[in-house]
Automatic annotation (TrEMBL):
GO BP terms: methylation
Swiss-Prot/TrEMBL keywords: 4Fe-4S, Iron, Iron-sulfur, Metal-binding, Methyltransferase, S-adenosyl-L-methionine, Transferase
Domain TRAM: 27-86
Chain sites annotated for binding S-adenosyl-L-methionine: 293, 322, 344, 388
InterPro entries: NA-bd_OB-fold (IPR012340), SAM-dependent_MTases_sf (IPR029063), TRAM_dom (IPR002792), U5_MeTrfase_fam (IPR010280)
Record's keyword annotation contains Transferase: yes
Sequence similarity: Belongs to the class I-like SAM-binding methyltransferase superfamily. RNA M5U methyltransferase family.
Alphabetized GO MF terms: methyltransferase activity
Start and end residues of each stretch annotated as Disordered: 1-32
Coiled-coil residue windows: none
Organism of this sequence: Cobetia amphilecti
Designated name of the protein: RsmD family RNA methyltransferase
Pfam families: TRAM, tRNA_U5-meth_tr
Superkingdom to which the source organism belongs: Bacteria
Length: 467
């Protein structure tokens, strides 16, 4: 009989559910009382120590050389996850985190480490990924700057609890819950100073529950706020308009589900950033949903380094895969390449790339849409291949290059590959494929694009011997 309108009786947990529960969370009172010394850092920035039985402990915010006792918050068969209960000494690299939310907010992992120590750690991580994959690297160049207010884009979650409390911020560490914030020390100042007023505005809205999240973008000369709104609320639209006027913002909302409609409530978006290539200054326009690197200064320096490595590219035929709105495509053209073809999966970004090429007078640029996980382009006659894939990497393409090289089809294999990656695991997997086929990594760089987090951007130049 159907239990309409009645509570279902509790069912027995499955064996899997029982196992997960028994693994579960131990509270601090169960914690180990041994003093352990932290040996090194895991790739995600947690300290690693071993207890008397040899079991590995991953410890939040513990640094190499520190003696600690632990509060274990999760046990597994081969390792435990823990945080520090007591610390006997402080590593030289320890600093006071600049943000009061560090530790609870999931946005940053490394604020307790000095910036140069963060960078040394990330260079080491990149090197370890290379070693693990058998890739031979030259010395890894670190690239970073001291400006840690770097994020020009952010997505802020908004939730109203059943008790009517507003939560406004990023997800907590290892949790789905939002950590309520009024400031963020890695946002560029024009975005950070908006957080407290935005929070106040949302509290005053008629229907804050209709709001999903906010996307903030600091473009040159313009700050754009896009509100994810489940259902339009006209009185709230007026409040957003007044807020936009007061703070000089462009505000839009994406309303509804299926289809979601983007409606501009105040101002007209005209987002763009500048990029210098030699004596040329490019202006790249983008829409709020398009990919752009979050750290503008490091993006510029990464491109400077790339063209320093590449030397004179005039007359070269270049293909830029995963091209976005043309960040590297236009840079290669401005540096003198004779033909540059960009391929990108989003038609909107392909169109934007072509608008950008035309606006910057770069007639040698072409672009088309393709899903590069399925359709591989012909590289016949290409001198330089630029790869800048998402986290999955570019395995199918690298496999195809390796097959062509093994089969002696050298005209289809570029002399040089410039590979930029946000995931060192897939980067080194792909680099190994290219290395086995005859490429050599001649330059390697770790760009600290995401300061205070364990993420790193890397760039390799791979070259094969002249035919
Ligand atoms: C890391 S971004 C790089 C964008 C650009 N190179 C830049 O520097 O701004 C990766 C790009 O790959 C695109 N992309 C993701 N998956 C793709 C696929 N399967 N085929 C083609 N493009 C894809 C994304 O839309 C995004 O623009």
């Amino acid at each position: 009989m159907a239990l309409l309108g009645q509570k279902r009786p509790a069912r027995k947990p499955t064996r899997r559910e029982k196992e997960v529960a028994s693994r579960g969370t131990r509270n601090a009172s169960d914690a180990d009382s041994q003093w352990l010394t932290v040996d090194r850092l895991a790739h995600d920035g947690r300290g690693i120590a071993h207890d008397e039985s040899g079991k590995t402990q991953f410890i939040d915010q513990a640094l190499p050389g520190e003696r600690v006792t632990l509060a274990i918050h999760r046990t597994h068969k081969r390792f435990n996850e823990a945080h520090v209960r007591a610390r006997d000494n402080a590593a030289d690299s320890r600093v006071t985190p600049p943000c009061a939310y560090f530790g609870s907010c999931g946005g940053c992992d490394l604020q307790h480490m000095a910036l140069d120590a963060q960078r040394t750690h990330k260079v080491q991580v990149l090197g370890e990924h290379a070693t693990r994959n058998g890739v031979t690297l030259p010395e890894i160049q670190p690239l970073g700057d001291d400006e840690s207010r770097y994020r020009r884009r952010a997505r802020i979650g908004v939730r109203v609890t059943d008790a009517g409390e507003l939560q406004f911020g990023f997800r907590g560490r290892g949790s789905n819950q939002l950590v309520d914030i009024t400031t963020c020390s890695v946002l560029v100042p024009e975005l950070d100073r908006l957080l407290a007023p935005l929070r106040e505005l949302i509290e005053s809205l008629e229907a804050p529950k209709r709001l999903g999240h906010l996307e903030l973008t600091a473009a040159e000369g313009q700050v754009i706020v896009v509100v994810r709104q489940l259902k339009a609320v006209p009185r709230d639209a007026q409040r957003w308009q007044a807020f936009a006027e007061q703070h000089g913002l462009v505000v839009g909302w994406r309303v509804g589900r299926d289809p979601v409609v983007l409606e501009w409530l105040s101002g007209t978006p005209n987002a763009a950033y500048s990029l210098s290539v030699g004596a040329t200054t490019l202006r790249l326009a983008f829409s709020p949903g398009d990919f752009v690197q979050v750290n503008a200064a490091l993006n510029q320096r990464l491109i400077d380094t790339a063209f320093e490595w590449l030397g004179d590219v005039s007359g070269l035929k270049v293909m830029d895969l995963y091209a976005g709105v043309g960040n590297l495509t236009l840079a290669a053209a401005a540096a003198g390449a004779s033909e540059v073809a960009g391929i990108e999966g989003s038609q909107g970004m392909v169109d934007q790339l072509m608008v950008n090429a035309e606006a910057n007078g770069l007639a040698q640029v072409s672009a088309r849409r393709a899903d590069l996980s399925k359709a591989l382009p012909s590289l016949e006659g290409i001198d330089l291949l630029v790869l800048d894939p998402p986290r999955d990497g570019a395995q199918p393409l690298c496999e195809e290059l390796a097959r062509d090289l093994h089969a002696g089809r050298v005209s289809r294999v570029p002399q040089r590959v410039l590979y930029i990656a946000c995931d060192p695991t897939t980067l080194m997997r792909d680099a190994r494929l290219l290395q086995d086929a005859g490429y050599r990594v001649t330059r390697a760089l770790m760009a600290d694009m995401f300061v205070h987090t364990a993420h790193l951007e890397s760039m390799l130049l791979l070259e094969r011997a002249e035919d």
